[in-house]
Amino acid sequence: MGKPRQNKKKTSKSREKSVLGPGKSVSKRKMNEDPATLLEQATVFLQTGQPDAALPLAQQALVLAPANSPHQLSALNTVAETYVELGDITAAKEHFQRAVDLDPEGTIPESQGGGAEKFLWLAQLSEEGGADSVAWFEKGVSALRHIIQTLEGKTSAGDVALADEKKKKMANALCAVSEIYMTDLSWEEDAESRCEALVTEALHVTPDSPEVLQTLASIRISQLRLDDARAALSRSIELWRDLAPEDTRIPDFATRISLSRLLMEVTMELEALEVLERLILEDDHSVEAWYLGGWCLHLLAENQQAPADAEGEDSPEAKRHASLVASREWLKQSLKLYEVLEYEDERLRDHAMELVQEMNKELGEDMDDEEDGEGEDQEGEDDLDEEIEAESDEDDEMADS
């Protein structure tokens, strides 16, 4: 994973204007010292990517909230989530744990600050991982089951949508536990049977979930059942392949990055490249997407295949050459972005450089590199810096509007 984008610092005055309007600062209004109002304002800041502005409001709400009240529970969760955004994991865990103390089973309604979210956060933030993460995930799943049961039989559109949302979250938590049994707890005697039970339940809860089907494929790969893995991955892709880019049913970026890796693992390189090309259209600053695309094209070259858009390449040698040329371009772009964005995955960089050097021996040195020289490389990096800075400014302006 790359370094998270940092929000540009803004003055507290500019943040106040974005929500409260000109001349109405938090300090002047004190928002009637109402915890509910403070939490609403903190949530707005948090949702618009301004956690450093959200934190003092959420902390003030926590101080003002009566002990053991819904407002105290809500404030604890908001403070904790804000600390997650700020990267202070220790403080986040402390506040989530205090929320657990007030709602140990997650049975307090979400409208009163209860529910499963704190357990799921603690599972992901656990430093111990393994069994500790599993225990937190299981508490979260139990709380989600309770919520889903309370919604069963209700027919309003809002209740149906909420039930679907909770089912998806529950299925993802079950898949997360199965992933732990495939990695940290793979030595457990019942690891394989636990994985099967977990993914089976997840499929029962959400039979048409791309994420669950990916987990199923991962399990099948670990079992060396590659045909079954390919079938699951094909089903996963078909669920969203033809959807519009803005459709919320499309898995998130990170999930599709993982999908491309799984596809390459089962020799479905053309499908993997299709996924990665779509990801690049969504975010052309993703170092990992460019790297994986280059690696995928290199695998195609090894099999004397060419990407679907390589027209007129009929012979195996021509297909190999087309894939190698494209592979080098993708990998060069990943390395350029690696430097500009100060990416931290050194293994990715080293592998990309090794592949480029290997292809240079077969294809010859890239003429563009020889002609452009270091000056052009620096100019390209400066252009990327300016583009990234412009996008960051645009994001901040949208947050302040």
From TrEMBL:
The name this protein goes by in its record: Uncharacterized protein
Regions of compositional bias (Basic residues) in chain numbering: 1-12
SUPFAM superfamilies, sorted: TPR-like
Region (Disordered), start-end ranges: 1-34, 354-401
Biased composition (Acidic residues): 365-401
Organism: Penicilliopsis zonata CBS 506.65
Coiled coil: none
Ranges for the TPR repeats: 73-106
Alphabetized UniProt keyword annotations: TPR repeat
CDD domains according to UniProt: ACL4-like
Recorded superkingdom: Eukaryota
Pfam families xref list: TPR_12 (PF13424)
InterPro entries to which the protein is assigned, alphabetical: TPR-like_helical_dom_sf (IPR011990), TPR_rpt (IPR019734)
Biased amino acid composition, Basic and acidic residues: 354-364
